[in-house]
Structure formats: structure tokens, C-alpha cells
Amino acid sequence: MAYDGVVACAPVTIPYRRYSINTAHWWIGRALHKLTQAAKIRPHDIDGLVLSSFTLGPDTAVGVTQHLGLTPRWLDHVPLGGASGVVGLRRAARAVQCGDAQLVACVAGDTNHVDSFRKTLTTFSRFAQDAVYPYGSGGANASFALITKNYMNMYGAKREDFGKLCIAQRDNALAIPFAMMKKKLTLDEYMAARPISDPLHLFDCVMPCAGAEAFLVCRADTAKSLGLPAVRILSTVERHNAFRDDPIQYRGGWALDVDELWQMAGIKPDDIDLVETYDDYPVIVTMQFEDLGFCRKGEGPDFIRGHSFTTDGSFPHNTSGGQLSAGQAGAAGGYLGLTEAMRQLTGAPIGEQVANAEHAIVSGFGMINYDRGLSSGAAVLARA
Amino acid sequence: MASDLLAFAHRVAQGSIRIIDLTQTLAQEFPTIVLPPEFGQCAPFRIEEVSRYDERGPAWYWNNITLGEHTGTHFDAPIHWISGKDLANNAVDTIDPRNFIAPASVVDCSKECATDPDFVLTVDFVEAWEKKHGRIAAGEWVLLRTDWSKKPYPEYAGMGDDGAHTPGPSPETVRWLVEERDVHGFGTETIGTDYGQGQHFNPPYPAHFYMHGKGRYGLQCLTNLDKLPPKGAVIVAAPLKIKQGSGSPLRVLALVEGGA
Amino acid sequence: MTAPLVRPKRKDPLKKTRQPLYPQPIRSRTAQGLTAAAAQGRFELQTCADCKTVFYPPRDACPNCLSARVPFIPVDNGGKVLAETTIHTSTDPYFRERTPWRAGLTKLDCGPVVLSHLHGDVREGERVRLNLKLDKGGAPVLIALPEKDTPNMADDPQLREMTCDPKFRRVLITNGRTAVGQAMAKAFSEAGANIVFVGIADPWKPFPGQDALRAIERVEIVPLDVTDTESVTEQAEQNGGRIDIIVNTAEHVRPGGIAQRHGLTVAREEMDVRYFGLMRLAQAFGPAMRSRGADGVNSAAAFVNLLSVHALMNWPAYGAYSAAEAATLSAAQCLRAELRPGGVKVLNVFFGPLETEWFQTVPPPKVAPSALAKAVVRALQSGLEDVFVGDVAEDIRGRLAVNPKALEREIAG
What is the DSSP letter of C354? Predict the structure, then answer.
């Protein structure tokens, strides 16, 4: 069932900072404040809230309602990391479509104190605590290094291929004021960067930072009455713990749901004008190209060799720099592609505009519980 | 009488009566008697600090000690041996305190022992000594000077694979000392009053058997016997008043005429 | 191929001693099943009692059929490394000082895919044997070892972090007067210990085997009496800063029960030698060992307690002895908790009756002192925490697991 009449609008970003002395509550508060200003609404107009954060503990979404003085009649807490944006959008869209709420604020925010990244890693999950962190404590870098190494072994991907993605995203980020990394990156620099966890080197890894992202989900007519440019939601999917018998992850849950995604959207991959993937590591980006239907499984490396991935290029991808250049603001990283796609489709980008942007796909990926990311999701959006 | 006593005290203070300490320091490493391991054992001296100007007691230093009645320089009461078990006043708490002060004859066999750790004190040897130094009087301690206290511990204990090899008296000698000389008790520098191989005598451990059987006392692990005259020293040896105690570690002092 | 360990040079006295760190030790309660197996050197993973699925990481229900009957049981440890990585950057202070550190994913023949440490002789795509070990913090970890033993494989730096190999370490055997103490001195000398200090109490008392003991290579006799606080303190003051492994061989074995035994003198000696002896050693040597847990190749590594298996269940024929052993075991558990932050393991070795004079009337099977000594060395080389030596010890372990009450009745005769 599609999401007829439901739109997303008012993307806001609280500029990222490498370290913050503020709390997650502060960042979420700033995002909701900016959202009310952008939409010219009052806080109590928000009757639905979906929230994602890693560093909010011991609170969850319900604590935030009292903390920020909100009285929603619909509330959700989506602890899905990089899949939070797509899943939050998905939940909110249904709530609005079914009339459970009229104006849903979707927000993700995290702080980054000195040492909070290490603490998050230690207690990330029970499996991480029992079976990952004690093995060198390389964090997600080490886990994705193994996935990357296996993918390279299986499909002949080279570091240069992943480098190309990182360099293109850096080019895109040069126009984004809040991006953490704003210095042009060359292939030589990429190749020569210090190793983090072989085969991953420095520029394959995101930089943890503090930040927040938010947007509204409502009916098209509500957006119109508020005077807000909006995007239509053509289709969404989510999946958790897919392909659990794969000994090592070489595909994500998208591969299970890709047919339904395009069928519901009523368009084909060729119709897409910009792609916002979840880029915690370039190997995951490559899998998304394959699993979302832009190329076949194993053809990722060739696909990368055939495109430029810059905002003005042949396959505009992660046009605000992605997390690899903008920084990974915790759960807000799962919102980065959504807010960027909304801006591109409404003609209000922070950086460069993708020409004739009519359709976008945003995908999310998150929660490496043990040896693989568990959650995947994707949404196809269209200019209203 | 009182004036004699004060005169005595004055002479001690002024040094014309010398005090010789016959006591070994109570220390953990000092050998104790060794019995076959299936028997009960005498506890060695052990010391545990209670506090030393620290969190356990900020302004004071003191220790708890553990030891046996027969650890270090010690006194043997008649009740110690089965032969003396039924005598009257046979334990350290019931012995008449008069008995804690008595003169001593010091029999020197250090020369003989220097070459023979198995030296046995015989009646002949004592009689020869008496010819030189005078008869042992009734009520006197007989202290056996062997210079054993000067030896390093392995030689001092003299342990071989057939038991200890240290000098001591023959059964006849002990019996003779008790019956013919009516001595007060017998004292040695070695770990026991008996000969090292005394278990092979008949009776075994005669110094214990005869002395305690006749209500006499023992002193062992003495030192500084070489500083005593053959006759004329007065021994002060008062054991702790342990209820029905068989013996006791103690400070043994000798009073000797003539200042330096 | 592993480079053979080089005998450590003398320490630069101007250099600060690296303080011990250890990997994150927190585990879920269920994952402590791995701790139990690792402590005794077994390779066990959860196996569903209903559908027989073997799985990992530890869970509270079978991920195949949702059964709650999911015990840890021994499984085949063979597998193949799917992918490896060398970690150069770690957020954890322990690993930060030890990078590069290798880890990899192995597909086990019995089913699950496991993330593990990799021995230096293991390569991606090769077959391996997975072992469960206790890491520096005493937490259970998996390490992939080469399928067949390789030269000097025990010297691998990652593996050596999980073992207490006596090689090049300095050992103190607390009592060399006994057959066990002497066998221990010989075994540690043969295992490549740098110095084997052997404590002798009452040196004025001769003892059998004295000359043979002195003749063992790298043995150094030192005065030590575990019943004398001052003696223990003095020995610690002299050598405590350079002792890496302590093997407490002080023993006091006497037959007899509680009610039937006459008085407390022997019981006090038992407690003094065993329980208080351990406490004296722990107080005198423990703090220095705990601070030297990361002191290079010859870091402080282990404190070994030799315990009668009857510490676990009283044997009335040796009832007071069993009780003293039980007290000692309890103290050893406390010591283990106290030394763990320093990366120093406490190895408890449970033995059945020994082939020594104090068990003369006990029928076989009995444990030869040399067998006990070899078991201790092997356990240290493997990094174990609890070891059972001899048929009687194994028997009691088995019966305790099945029905402790039955054992209590039957052992009383």
C-alpha cells in the first residue's frame, strides 16, 4: 500500500561539531526548535514524534516529551542507527495516513563527548559486549574491515574503487558548510592514508561527531497550508536480520525487498536522479548499488568504475558529502540522506543542485550487532 | 635482712654483682625441638604486628606472639614428663616461687664437645670436675657448658638422618645427680636437656625421666654459660605463671660476684 | 612462522613500568558459560538440546527453534578463516598499546561463524583450531590457532597475552622440602624459567632430595617459611619485584577428622601453613605482582595454588585437612579477584591423593609429584584457571557435577 497524500517537508540540520559539551537532549531540542521555526508552527502543534538517538540514555522518546514540553498523541522510538531515518519516515507516514497523527516531527540527534564514542562501542549490544569488543576493540571499523575484505576477495573490488566513492563524496562536501571534512581528497592521499583496520584506511571511515537532523511528515494539504515545499513518499521498505545464514555479510536486507520497493514506487532504478545511500563504509555503499537494483550482485566494482558520483556527474550520490565527509552524528547519520534528498527535490540544496531532480532514493543501514548490520531500509521520494 | 637485700640491690646497681643474661632472643628462625611428624609439635615462635603507628593503631606499636611452652630458652616443670605427672606442685603455676632462685655449678665440657657432638656426660667426668671445683651442693642447678649456643643453627640442631647429634648426660649421670647430689635441676645450651640420641638410652630421655620424676627442673637453650664461674653464680629463672603449664619461655639471669 | 621469544634484557631502571591494562571484561551472564569452559581448557559452545543447532554468540534461546534448552557442550573446534583484519587503531587502552592486532571471522565446521583473535601463524582461507582462552582480564575469548602446531607457536605475542608460559619467567616455589616442591622446581627449570627460586624453611633441618634440588639448573635456594610473616615479607622485599609466577607448594597433610581428632594443635598448623600461608604470600607478593602484569616478556603472570580436590568435598578420613584446603580455596578465589585487575591469573590445581608419604595408606590411583608438576606447567602454558589432576580428582569433579549429595554420602565410606 502506497502513501498517497502523505509528504515529508521542512528538513533541518543543526550544524555538526566534532565534540560537544552538550547533551543529546540539547541537540534534539535545537533540532525541534529549528523545525518549529522553519515550519512556523508552535511546539504543541506537533502531535506525533518519532525519535532516534544513541546518547540519550537513560531516557527514551517518552522522557523527551516531558523534557521538551511536548504532548504528542503518537510517539515512537526507533533505535535503529543508520536505518533510523527511513524507518522513522515509514512509521510517521503510516501514522499520518491512518489519521493517528497530523503533524509528526521526525528527529535524530546525538552528542559526542570526548570518550563517548568508546563508551558507545563498549556497550553497543550484548553480542558486541560478549563477542566483538574484546577482540581488539576496533569497533565498527574492524567489523566492516572483515566484511570489506571478504567482498574484495569475492568480487575483486579494489581499494581504488572504494577510494573513488570517497573522493566523489568529498567533492560534494566541499560546498557544504557544516561538513567535518572540507579539504579536497586525492586518490594518492586516500591510498596513502594510515591503516585503521586492514583493508580499511583513514578515509574509509566516518568521523564521529555531534549533530541533529529533523523533518516533518504530514498530509500534502497540511504542508501546503503551512506553505512548506514537500516531497512525496512513493515507497518504503525495511528488513531486519536478513540472510542470517550467509557466513559473512555480502548483501543487505534490500536484496529481499527490492522488487516490492520499485513496484510500490511505480518507477525503475533508471528513473532515479539522485541516490543517498548509508555510507558508513564504502563497501556498504557498493552493496546498496547492487541490492537496490542499480547493478547486479558482484558488479559493484564495475559500476563504480563506470560513474562519477559527483552532484554534477553521471550518478549523483551522497550529494551533501555523506557521513564520510559530513561526519557521523550518531543516529542523525541515518537522517542525513533524507534531509539532503528532500532539499534536492524541493530545489533548496545547501550545496550544489542536482539538475532536474525529480526522483530520489534514500537507503538506510544500521546496527552491527555482532558480525553484520542487521537493519536495512529504503525510501523512494519524488518532487511534489 | 632488709638491709642485706638493699645492699644486694645496691651492688647490682653499682655493678659489683654482675647480671649475665643466659637467654636466647625469641626469634622465628631459632630451632625448636623436632619430633617425628606424626606427633604433636611444639609451636615455633611467631610474631604478628597488631599495629605500628598506622591505621591499625596510630600512636602505638605492639605485636601478638604465638609460641609453645617449650620454645626458645625455656623452663621445664616436673609435670612435663610422665614420670613427674603425679607429683605435688609440679606445674609452673604451682611451683613454690622460692625455687626460681638457686645457685649453679657450671660443668664445662666445651673442649670435649668441640670435637665430639656425641659427647656423653658421665659420672666420672662430673666427679673429676668436682675434684677441681668442689662438690656439687644440694639444691644447686647443674648447668652443662658445651658452647653449643655459639654454633650456627644447622650444627646447633645437629640433625642427621638418625636424629639429633648433641651432647648430653648418660642415664646414670642424671640419676646420680638427683640421688647422690640432690640437685635443683639440670640446664643445657642445647634444644633439650637430654643427649641428642637420648631416645636410645634406657630409660629414654633420662634427663627428663629422672629429673622430673623427682620433682626437679630443667632449663634449655641457655647461652653465655661461658661467662659463668664454675661455682658461685646464682640463677634467677622464673617461668610464666601458666595454668597447669608444663614449662615456659622465660628470661634466665645469672648473678655473678665481682665487678669489672 | 612465529619468531622465537628472545630472553628479555635486564630492565632499564630509568624506565617506567607499564601499568597493567586488560580488555573489556564485561560479559552477559549466559556468556559466562564460555568462562567456565575456558577456565578448564575445554572448547564448548551452546548447542540446542532440541534441534542440535550449534550457535554463537551466547543466547538465551535457540535461534533456530527458540528452545530454551541451550547448554554449553564440547563441540568440534575445526574451521576455516573467512576473512582477517589487522587492527591498527583501537579505542581501548589495552589494545591501543598492543596494535597491530589481528582478528578474523572463522566458519566453524560445527556451524557458527565466530569472530576471534588470530594466532600469528594463521592466514585467511586456512583451516584452524579454535581455542577458548581467558584474556588478560580473565574474560573468555576465542583464538584461532594453526591447524597443526607450528615452531615456537607458544611464543606468539597475541597468544602469550592469554597464557602464563613459564618460559623466561622467574618462578618462586614456596616450599622445596617436599617431593612436590622438588618436582615443581625440576619441571619449571625444564620449561625454560629464567630463575627458579625455591623457598626452604628451617634450613637447619635437613631434608631428602636436598642435593638433587640444588643441582637443578637455574634453581636458587632462598629462605622462606610461609608460617612466618616476617620470613615471607623479607623474601618479598628481596625478590618480590621480580617474581612472575608463584607456585605455593607449602603443604600440610595429616589424616584425621574433626570430632575424632584430639585437640586443635594440628588443625592450627594446617590452617597456618595453608590458609594463613596463602594470605601471607598474597599480602607480601600480591601487590607487586599486580602492578607488574604488563611488564614485558617476563611480566608477572600467575599465582598457583595446589589444592586437594577434597577442598570441594570433605573427605572425612582426612577431614580437618579437607577443611583447611576448602578455606584455602576460598581465599584463592578472593585472591583471583584481587589479582585479576593486574592481569595476573590465579591457577587452582585440584589433585587427588599424591604418591607421597602422607597418603601412604591410601589405595591407588594416586598422583606422582612429577605428574602434578607437569600438569601445572601445562596449565600455565595453556593459560588455564582450574585444573584437575589425577583420576580421583577427575572422578570427584564428575560426581560433583552430577550429584554432590551422593558424593557427600559415598565419600564418608
Answer: B
Residue C380 grid coordinates = 600455565
Coil, helix or strand at residue B18: strand
Distances (CA, A) of A7 to A53, A231, A384: 23, 5, 8
Cross-chain CB nearest to B40 (options C225, C230, C265):
C265
* Count of CB atoms situated within 10 Å of the CB of B251: 13
Written as one string, the DSSP assignment of A274-343 is EEE---SSHHHHHHHHHHTTSS-TT-HHHHHHT---STTSSS-BSTT-HHHHH-B-GGGHHHHHHHHHHH
- Whether B230 shows a pLDDT value over 60: the answer reads yes
Q: Return d(Cα B71, Cα B30) in angstroms, integer.
A: 9
* Residue written as grid cell 534448552: C69
Question: Coil, strand or helix: which one is C143?
Answer: strand
Grid coordinates representing A143 are: 567489523
Asked if C198 contacts C185 with a C-beta cutoff of 8 angstroms, the reply is yes
Q: What share of chain B is helix, strand, coil (3-state, %, to 5)?
A: 25, 30, 45
ipTM exceeding cut-off 0.90 for this assembly: yes
Q: Which chains touch C (3 or more CB pairs under 8 A)?
A: A, B
Q: Enter the pTM of the model.
A: 0.93
* Rounded CA separation C300/B203 (Å): 56
- In chain A, what are the helix, strand and coil shares in percent, each to the nearest 5? 40, 20, 40
Residues in chain B, how many? 260
pLDDT at residue B1 tops 60 = no
Place of cell 658452647: B147
Nearest CA in chain C to B38: C254
- Residue C261 makes CB contacts below 8 A (sequence gap 6+) with C267, C319, C320
Instruction: Report the half-sphere exposure of C72 (CA within 13 A, side-chain side).
Output: 19
The per-residue pLDDT string of chain C (413 residues; one tens digit each, 9 = 90 and over) reads: 899 999 988 888 889 999 999 999 999 999 999 999 999 999 999 999 999 999 999 999 999 999 999 999 999 999 999 999 999 999 999 999 999 999 999 999 999 999 999 999 999 999 999 999 999 999 999 999 999 999 999 999 999 999 999 999 999 999 999 999 999 999 999 999 999 999 999 999 999 999 999 999 999 999 999 999 999 999 999 999 999 999 999 999 999 999 988 899 999 999 999 999 999 999 999 999 999 999 988 999 999 999 999 999 999 999 999 999 999 999 999 999 999 999 999 999 999 999 999 999 999 999 999 999 999 999 999 999 999 999 999 999 999 999 999 999 999 98
> In angstroms, rounded to a whole number, what is the distance separating the alpha carbons of residues C408 and C239?
43
Respond yes or no: is residue B80 known to be catalytic. yes
- Separation between Cα atoms, residue B99 and residue B255, nearest integer Å: 15
- In what helix (H) or strand (E) does residue C145 lie, and over which residues does it extend? strand C140-146
Active-site residue identified among B80, B184, B208, B212 = B80
CB pairs under 8 A between A and C: 123
Cβ neighbours of B40 in C, within 8 Å: 263, 265-266
Please say whether the beta carbons of B240 and B250 come within 8 A.
Answer: yes
How do residues C132-143 score in pLDDT, each as one tens digit?
999 999 999 999
Q: Do C28 and A126 touch (CB under 8 A)?
A: yes
CB-facing half-sphere around the CA of C310: CA atoms within 13 A: 20
As a whole number of angstroms, the distance between CA B188 and CA B200 comes to 19
Q: Name which of C343, C333, C338, C342 is nearest C307 in CA terms.
A: C333
Question: Are the Cβ atoms of C88 and A195 closer than 8 angstroms?
Answer: yes
Q: What is the pLDDT of residue B258?
A: 84
Question: In whole angstroms, what is the distance from residue A288 CA to residue A215 CA?
Answer: 24
3-state helix/strand/coil string of A100-167 = CCCCEEEEEEECCCCCHHHHHHHCCCHHHHHHCCCCCCCHHHHHHHHHHHHHHHHHCCCHHHHHHHHH
**What does the alpha-carbon distance between residue C258 and residue C250 come to, in Å, rounded to a whole number?**
22
